[in-house]
Structures are given as structure tokens and as C-alpha cells.
Specification:
By secondary structure, the protein is α/β, with parallel strands linked by helices. It contains 20 helices and 19 strands. Strand 9 and strand 10 form a beta hairpin. The two termini are 33 Å apart.
Length: 524
């Protein structure tokens, strides 16, 4: 159905995709895996006719059912692509917050495909959207329909994107990291949904992911990409059980797993004389959002999102926070950092300048500034607050270059902007920005969700090293249970705004008390 023949793509400099050839048959799911920046997304965007105008196809062509969509040396036929996009081929993007229009309600945005490609009435379009929302696991579909993107959790926004992509059951579905922001239970629902759609509609699917476990579960064939080239391709089990290339073996070995030994030192809470004072102490914390208004008196209503949270966090300790999307994990972390003030209970800090690594790096990094400027901004802010900590321009630049190196990026990235980076590279810049001031306490909200497995392992090792060197306390939020197992000393499980279970990592994984916790562990 889909043929990509010797495709090469270049921007201003050298080629970033080099002689890539792929075929996807009717009903087949082809997985493409590889490190961030290897060319996976550029290949997908070029296939979809969505690559930027600065991209040049230097060789090869792309065919859909023997119709040539794109060919080197010829301009892209925008009219042809408009007939195919949405109706015959659709795409789930990696970062839903930057793909959805922040000024429009999500229901209207999902309806756009129906308005363009069907003759359904307004009511029929709405019913179709609500039906699709239910199919992708969105609860309270009427509320979601009327919501703006910023009113939804990261996982809910991702599911809206998936609903938008599958609503017309296109012949080709390109899924670029479709489960990045989802917790394990919803991730399983989405993977099952994609599999069901594939079986019922016999559509072709290009599944791009850094999660090799997902590729193994969903895909019939896998292509491994490195430095813009396909280095290995074959049947999924053949690739995983008997990889030919050393690079493929490295990818497989880097996947975090509970089967691998946890390398953790003695618990950080003990100081030799009992217990050290906690870096953060949270007591009976409830967090509220203002929503709507009381029509009689014009007062806003308060909705309790987090209910009665209690925990302590110690120097050098990682405390994992897990639970389904929308359960209140990010809200709790923002309240702990003082970003939400409508609270009951208390939050006590025994450290200065706590920082946060945000879930969506593209949304949290200023697109108009260079990487070097972004890394120096926390240092400038710190110096403005405390003159004794002010650094010279040369010292700030040196610190920024050093952080680039420590998060695995070359010095040339100093002058680039976020739009010129891959998703994984942007996540590393976000991490570097949070760590550059050497904070005593950090909230890591899905800090490795957008990273491929090799870079994910590097970043987790980086965070562990920082904890050991600086006695850094970390509240680690993740939907990836295997990452939490590898990173965290203790775990809190959250459901519907409440912490329903907490304990040492090994203890929680070996003997969970709550049925919900068991479901999370089984689902991963």
C-alpha cells in the first residue's frame, strides 16, 4: 500500500534522511525505532506531506497505492495531499499541546476532519466525535468536547489527538509516539485500540516509538534507524530475539525492566543518628481549582483536585508518584512548588530554589530564544534575587556549555532554537535548565517520556549522579512503571486525587495492597 523508495531529505545542511526504503502492506503495522534525532519523525512528516518548506527531497519517491505523492526534483503537490490528508492518511503527533489549537474547544477541532471530508449534519458530527472519544478511553466525553486543550491533562490531550486521527478510519495511520504521555493502563487501552482498528479496517500503520516494548507488542515488522539510515529491518520477534546489528542489540539492552537488578544504594533517609530532617514535608494537602461561576451570586466554584496528601521527601531520595492521567499527579507537584496557591494543609521546604522539569518541553521552552540563552536564564534570575550568587557573562556561558555536555549534547546546540531540536533533545534541554542552578529539590514530571531508550538510560543515570553528588531530593512523576522501579526509592500511588498506597519500591512491587496498584503493575 505504501512504498518509500530511496528517500533522502536535507534541510540547510547535510541530509538527515539517507536512502530510506520502506514498504507497508494493507493491514500491516510497521514499527520504526531508533534514537532521537535519527530521522524517524522527518521520514513520517515527509510521507504525510507535512515537512517544512526548508526540507528538500534530494532523492527517491513516495507512493500510496501506486499513486506518486512525492518525488525528488518535483514540487510537492499540495492539492493532491489535501485530498489524502485526513481522509486516506492521518497522523497522531508526538506533542498534543503544540498540535492542538489553544483558542478552540477540542470538540470543534476534532469535527474539522468531518466537516472537510463528509456531508454529516452538525448533530451527526458531534455524535461521531463523542463516540470516538469513548472509543479512545476519554471519560466524560461531553465535558471533553466543550473543553479547551489547557483544561485537559497531558494524557487526555494525547487521546484527543488519536481520536482526531482515527475518526474517519484512514487507510494509512502514522503514529508518532502516540502513547508518550499516557499512563500504563490507558497506554494499554490505546495500543489495544490501534490493534483493533488495524484488524477491522485493514489499514496500514507506521508506528514510530522509542518504547521497544510497545513496538514488540503491536508491530508485525520493525525497522531500526540510525543516523538517518535504516540499519536493520525484519519480523518483530526475529529482530528482538536475534538482532544482527550491534546498534540494535544496544537498543534492546537499554530498555528498563523489572527483570534487571535495581542498583540502589542504602536508603538516603538515615544519617547515622536516626533520620535527617526532610527536604519537603507535606501535611494534609488539598488542592483546589476555580471553575465556572455561581449564577446567583457570581462566585466561582472550587473543585478539589488533590485530597489530603501526606508525605515527606529526604535529601538524595527519589520518591515516585504514579497513577492514571488526570488523577492529580501534576497538580500535586505544582502545589508543592507553590505554583498553585488555593490549598488547604501545609507544605514546608528546607531548601532554596526548587525546580521543575516539565512534561512538555516544547511548550515550556521559549521558541524565540536560543538554547544558550535558555540555559543561562535561571542563572540570571538567581543572580537578580541574590547578588552574592551573580555570575559574569563568561561564567554563565561556561556553565551553559558544561550542562550541554552533561546532558549529552554537543556545543553546536548552544546557538540553536527549540524548533531545530528533536523531541528528545528538547527534553534534555529542559532537564539541563532545571539542574543548572544546583537545586536541592526537583520535581521531574515525566522527565524521560519523550526519550529513546538509550538516551533515557543516560538521563536516568545523570539524575542519579546528581542525587548522589548534590544530595538532590526528587519527586519523580512517571507513567512508566519500569522507569519508576529503576529510579525510585519509594513510591506513592495516586487515584482520583488521593494517595491510596505508599511504601518502599521493592515492597510495593512485591506485595501491593490495593487492587488498583496491582492493575497498574500488571498493565506494565
Amino acid at each position: 500500500m505504501i512504498r518509500i523508495e530511496n528517500l533522502s531529505v536535507a534541510f540547510d545542511g547535510p541530509e538527515v534522511v539517507k536512502n530510506v526504503s520502506l514498504e507497508i502492506g494493507d493491514g500491516e503495522i510497521l514499527g520504526v525505532v531508533g534514537e532521537s534525532g535519527c530521522g524517524k519523525s522527518v521520514t513520517a512528516l515527509t510521507l504525510m506531506g507535512l515537512s517544512p518548506r526548508t526540507a528538500r527531497v534530494t532523492s527517491g519517491r513516495i507512493l500510496y497505492d501506486d499513486v506518486t505523492l512525492l518525488e525528488a526534483g518535483k514540487p510537492r503537490d499540495e492539492a493532491l495531499y489535501r485530498r489524502y490528508q485526513g481522509a486516506r492518511m492521518s497522523m497522531v503527533f508526538q506533542e498534543p499541546m503544540t498540535s492542538l489549537n489553544p483558542t478552540q474547544r477540542v470538540g470543534r477541532q476534532v469535527e474539522e476532519t468531518l466537516r472537510l471530508h463528509t456531508k454529516l449534519t452538525s448533530q451527526e458530527r458531534k455524535e461521531k466525535v463523542l463516540e470516538t472519544f469513548r472509543a479512545v478511553g476519554l471519560k466524560g466525553e461531553e465535558i471533553v468536547y466543550r473543553s479547551y486543550p489547557h483544561q485537559l491533562s497531558g494524557g487526555m490531550r494525547q487521546r484527543v489527538m488519536i481520536a482526531m486521527a482515527v475518526i474517519l478510519h484512514p487507510g494509512l495511520l502514522v503514529a508518532d509516539e502516540p502513547t508518550t504521555a499516557l499512563d500504563v493502563t490507558v497506554q494499554n487501552q490505546i495500543i489495544s485500540l490501534l490493534g483493533e482498528i488495524n484488524k477491522k479496517q485493514k489499514n496500514a500503520m507506521l508506528f514510530i516509538t522509542h518504547d521497544l516494548n510497545l513496538a514488540r507488542r503491536l508491530c508485525s515488522r520493525v525497522a531500526v534507524m540510525k543516523d538517518g539510515r535504516i540499519v536493520e529491518t525484519g519480523e518483530t520477534e526475529q529482530i528482538f530475539e536475534h538482532p544482527v546489528q550491534e546498534y540494535t542489540r544496544q537498543l534492546i539492552q537499554a530498555v528498563p525492566s523489572r527483570l534487571k537488578e535495581r542498583k540502589r544504594e542504602k536508603g538516603p533517609r538515615e544519617n547515622g543518628r536516626g533520620y535527617a530532617a526532610p527536604v519537603v514535608k507535606v501535611q494534609d494537602l488539598s488542592v483546589y481549582y476555580q471553575e465556572g461561576s455561581n449564577s446567583l451570586f457570581g462566585r466561582k466554584k472550587r473543585r478539589c483536585v488533590v485530597k489530603g496528601a501526606d508525605f515527606e521527601l529526604y535529601a538524595g531520595e527519589s520518591l515516585g508518584l504514579v497513577g492514571e492521567s488526570g488523577c492529580g499527579k501534576t497538580t500535586l507537584s505544582r502545589a508543592v512548588l507553590g505554583m498553585i496557591r488555593d490549598i488547604d494543609g501545609s507544605v514546608v521546604h528546607n531548601t532554596l530554589r526548587p525546580q521543575m522539569i516539565f512534561q512538555d518541553p516544547y511548550g515550556s521552552l521559549n521558541p524565540a530564544k536560543t538554547v544558550g540563552w535558555l540555559l543561562q536564564e535561571p542563572l540570571r534570575a538567581r543572580g537578580a534575587i541574590d547578588a552574592s550568587l551573580a555570575l559574569s557573562k563568561e561564567e554563565m556561558e561556561e556553565a551553559a556549555y558544561d550542562m550541554l555536555r552533561r546532558v549529552g549534547l554537543e556545543a553546536c546546540y548552544f546557538h540553536r532554537r527549540p524548533s531545530q531540536l528533536s523531541g528528545g533533545q528538547r527534553q534534555r534541554i529542559s532537564i539541563a535548565q532545571a539542574l543548572i542552578t544546583n537545586p536541592g529539590f526537583i520535581v521531574a514530571d515525566e522527565p524521560v517520556s519523550a526519550l529513546d531508550v538509550t538516551v533515557q538510560a543516560q538521563i536516568m543515570e545523570l539524575l542519579r549522579n546528581f542525587q548522589q553528588e548534590m544530595k538532590l531530593a526528587c519527586l519523580f512523576i512517571s507513567h512508566d512503571i519500569n522507569v519508576v522501579y529503576k529510579m525510585c526509592d519509594r513510591i506513592m500511588v495516586m487515584k482520583d486525587g488521593r494517595i491510596i498506597e505508599s511504601g518502599d519500591t521493592q515492597e510495593i512491587f512485591a506485595s501491593p495492597r490495593e487492587e488498583y496498584t496491582r492493575q497498574l503493575l500488571i498493565g506494565s
